[in-house]
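Re-running the complex after MR caught last week's input typo. The corrected sequence lines follow. Everything else is unchanged.
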Amino acid sequence: MNSEEMAWKIRRHVVEMTHRAHASHIGGALSCADILAVKKGV
Amino acid sequence: MQTFWRLKRAFDEEPGGRPKVIIADTVKGKGISFMENELLWHYRDPQGEFYERAVAELEEKKPCGIMR
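Corrected-run output:
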């Protein structure tokens, strides 16, 4: 999985988890998806 | 795509024996158009129509390599 795919998965999970939990700081979580994807991924 | 290469370079760069810090100029809500730079979406959770739109937007932009 490349960084673009990883970042997408992170964002998809962020939306899903905040939706189900009825709670979030979704803004910050989405903002660092690309950074996390590079750091943890390829 | 350029973002990923710049990030990778920043992480890989050798600081020559000194501490390294990376300051990223990020966009809050990045990746969901109606959330980007919107104060409410700093802390709101997506429900109803907002959830549907967020998922639809992501599905539209889904990279080819992802199966499910």
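None of the earlier attempt is carried over here. Chain B touches chain A through 32 residues (CB under 8 Å). The CA atoms of residues 32 and 55 of chain B lie 9 Å apart.
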